[in-house]
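In response to reviewer comment 3 from the previous cycle, which asked for concrete evidence that the modeling workflow produces usable outputs, we include below a single protein chain processed end to end. The sequence was submitted unchanged, and the resulting structure tokens are shown without manual editing.
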Amino acid sequence: ASRPYDSTRNGFVLGEGAAGFVLEEYTSARKRGATIYAEIVGYATRSNAYHMTGLRGDGAEMAEAITTALDEARMNPSDLDYVNAHGSGTKQNDRHETAAFKRSLGEEAHRLPVSSIKSMVGHSLGAIGSIEIAASALAVRTNVVPPTANLHNQDPELDLDYVPLTARDWHTDAVLTVGRG
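The workflow returned the following structure tokens.
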């Protein structure tokens, strides 16, 4: 089983799936009366240019991408309601990601619910980004944060609110969706 943030995790579980979207300018969608599920207001990408899967323990690259995405969106960490994490279930990634959230979001990292849908669907590699965006849009639409399934024994090194086992009703207007790879 995929067990992000659990002390017994031992790597990612391969999954299958896909999601697709119609992206359109907000004003155009409003004008034609489209149902708008979500709005992408900021985006950023970074690379450590060192190793395909190697990650620094301090989370610097991911933290920089998060900060840049928030700046582009003209948002502060306090504007966020939920973090849909990469949460691959590898010890290296879970530590890197937790450090990145603390580094980029400051104390807000401890307030925000953080979860990984990979705990339920596995890691579908190239398709997972679109699947996670779909899950984030659904969280906004329903005001429900998906759980991190299989999180029975949280790793004590990882001290954020990873929404263990059960979905949570939560006011969710602004979601930070994080991926790597």
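The longest helix spans residues 91-105. We consider this sufficient to address the reviewer's concern, and the full set will be provided in the supplementary archive.
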